UniProtKB/TrEMBL annotation:
The lineage of its organism: Eukaryota, Viridiplantae, Streptophyta, Embryophyta, Tracheophyta. This is FGGY carbohydrate kinase domain-containing protein. Keywords: Kinase, Transferase. GO terms for biological process: pentose metabolic process. Residues 1-33 are annotated as: Disordered. Pfam families: FGGY_C, FGGY_N. Residues 345-555 form the Carbohydrate kinase FGGY C-terminal domain. It comes from the Eukaryota. It comes from Acorus gramineus (Dwarf sweet flag).
Length: 618
């Protein structure tokens, strides 16, 4: 009989889905040495929209090194695709570079975790790519998270009003796997691919599978994106329970109802029959072929290195930052067992995710969740978000006529374009004698829904709006537009926080990570507009730290994920809201305009629909 490919696990036996505990299985690296103990490190891998990154951390959670490698992306209209083969090659390159930079050997890496965008991967029974592209290009087997081709499928599913949807903010977004991942779209549009696909996997789950051969899925991906009801296990188990639970959180009626009943066949073999808490050790660790393959797609690590069950990248950021509390506040929090529930993490990158946890499940219209154990085991996760934040700022700046000249100026000063824009704003505030920088935008207002509104209005058809444009095309005008866009994004965060708090949360502190969190103007505007202090982590690479924490848990260095977070998270700078009452008054006024812009858009939509004799959808 032909031997299966090393990244393909055998076809699962005919049994009910399993939920595995972090202590179910062990994986170890066999090493013998008479030399003094070497420094050990945890390795985190993060696959973003444009690159794969690797980071090594010591046992205090301090960053030792990072490296990245670009990944290819194809864009055509609403269709955005990648290649899992290309992604794996990029990961291998990044891992080897990170180890080289830190002078860390394979023997010193004692645990590995993966995080990735919530993109979809299609593979056949041999683990080979299955195209999800109109082009038919077999390399293009990944539907990227920001792909919006399945809007109509989402609308049809939402119209059914299945009880499952109450755990998705009342409805599925085009960015959620059930409609987008073509589960439905591919079935309706790419029949051959639908027939060939043997596994549909979230990207982070596929990475773990590629590394270990273990097809166990993460509660993070399945619950957040695949409508898996993880709380079906809530009364029967906890994170430290070593027993397997032979039960199922899939709602078969839902899959039948939306026209995907064939995914129920074989006890859900194509979408996952075994799930685990994040950090649970998978299989026997890295397979020999994944660790040191005969070809040029190896990680350069030891076979058997423990690999933890994966996380979506934003959720890894949450794991890497949620417990980054200053020491004095930590002492107070020790007496408050629910202190973690008063925080919201902003993972600010191409898009922004807003994540908060609670002990009780809270249903919030227009906000994803509640998701049981999807980030921190045994907590309910609420997940808001903005589909375009860093991507929107890039779009606003790079499409402006003044951008090329400004970019040259920034390069000549060896600073980023955004650092130069921040300097220009400070200079303008001084020249115009305004009381504070934010006041420069009194006549410019931005609704940042250029890629729809993920939450809290959950309207994928929402459009971006800019009020206050003139014929001015100067660098100063670009700076104002940039500042107004930052403020618009921050008003969106305020809207999400207020909406969550009005439905049971008690959020009073924000923690921020990701690329945008390194922009001081961006963070200060958010603190002033939301009215909460914002804690920045000591280590800037929170998503990589969160991924590495999965490896630390898999290596059994900690009893569970939350314990590992408390040990390896650490606070850095704390940014407080302005104490100037004029700042609050100003932003309250602009926030009112921000809210009215969406109402105006709805009214305009209705007027035009009536003019074209179309029914207006609420």
């Amino acid at each position: 009989m032909a031997k299966p490919k090393p990244w393909s696990s055998p076809t699962p036996s005919d049994k009910s889905p399993l939920i595995s505990r972090p202590s179910d299985r062990t994986s170890s690296v066999e090493m013998t040495s008479s030399a003094p103990p070497l420094q050990t490190a945890f390795l985190g891998v993060d696959v973003g929209t444009g690159s794969a990154r690797a980071g090594l951390f010591d046992e205090d959670g301090r960053l030792l090194s990072t490296a990245s490698s670009p990944i290819q992306i194809w864009k055509q209209g609403d269709c955005i695709e990648q290649s899992s083969t290309d992604i794996w090659h990029a990961i291998c390159a990044a891992v080897k570079s990170a180890c080289s930079l830190a002078n860390i050997t394979a023997e010193q890496v004692i645990g590995l975790g993966f995080a990735a965008t919530c993109s979809l991967v299609a593979v056949d029974a041999d683990g080979s790519p299955v195209t999800v592209s109109w082009s038919g290009d077999a390399r293009r087997n990944v539907i990227v998270w920001m792909d919006h081709r399945a809007v109509s499928q989402a609308e049809r599913i939402n119209a059914l009003k299945s009880p499952v949807l109450q755990y998705c903010g009342g409805g599925l977004s085009p960015e959620m796997q059930a409609p987008k991942v073509m589960l439905l779209w591919v079935k309706e549009n790419l029949q051959e691919s639908w027939s060939m696909a043997f596994r549909w996997m979230d990207l982070s789950d596929w990475l773990s599978y590629r590394a270990t051969g273990d097809d166990t899925r993460s509660l993070c991906t399945t619950v957040c994106k695949w409508t898996y009801l993880g709380h079906a296990h809530m009364q029967q188990s906890d994170e430290k329970d070593s027993r397997d639970m032979e039960t199922c959180g899939w709602d078969d009626e839902f899959w039948e109802e939306i026209g995907l009943g064939d995914l129920v066949e074989g006890h859900h073999a194509k979408i996952g029959r075994s799930v685990a808490f994040p950090g649970h050790p998978l299989g026997s660790g890295l397979t020999p072929d994944a660790a040191k393959a005969r070809h040029l797609v190896e990680l350069g690590l030891l076979a058997g290195t423990p690999v933890g069950t994966s996380l979506i990248d934003a959720h890894a950021g949450g794991v890497g930052v949620m417990e980054s509390i200053p020491v004095t506040e930590n002492q107070v929090d020790d007496a408050d067992k629910d202190a973690t529930c008063h925080r919201m993490v902003l993972v600010c990158g191409t898009s922004t995710c807003h994540m908060a946890v609670s002990r009780e499940k809270l249903f919030i219209p227009g906000v994803w969740g509640p998701f049981w154990s999807a980030m921190i085991p045994e907590y309910w996760l609420t997940e808001g978000g903005q589909s375009a934040t860093g991507a929107l700022l890039d779009h606003i700046v790079e499409t402006h006529v003044a951008a090329p000249h400004l970019a040259n100026r920034a390069a000549s000063q060896s600073i980023s374009l955004y650092e130069l824009l921040n300097k220009i704003l400070e200079s303008m505030a001084h020249e115009l004698k305004v009381p504070f920088v934010a006041a420069l935008t009194e006549d410019v207002h931005v609704l940042p829904d250029f890629h729809g509104n993920r939450s809290p209005v959950a309207d994928p058809k929402s459009k971006g709006m800019v009020c206050g444009l003139t014929l001015d095309t100067s660098e100063k005008q670009l700076a104002l537009l940039y500042l107004a866009t930052v403020q618009g994004i921050a008003y969106g965060t305020r809207h999400i926080v207020e909406h969550c708090n009005s439905h049971g949360h008690k959020i009073n502190t924000l923690l921020a990570c990701g690329g945008l969190s390194k922009n001081p103007l961006y963070i200060q505007q958010h603190a002033d507009i939301v009215g909460c202090p914002i804690i920045l982590p000591r280590e800037s690479e929170s998503v990589l730290l969160g991924a590495s924490i999965l490896g630390a848990v898999a290596a059994r260095k900690y009893s569970g994920l939350h314990d590992a977070m408390r040990a390896l998270n650490a606070a850095g700078q704390v940014v407080h809201p302005s104490k100037d009452p004029r700042v609050k008054k100003y932003h309250d006024a602009k926030y009112q305009i921000f809210r009215e812009l969406y109402g105006l858009q709805l009214a305009n939509r209705s007027i035009m629909s009536q003019a074209l004799d179309r029914k207006v959808k609420a």
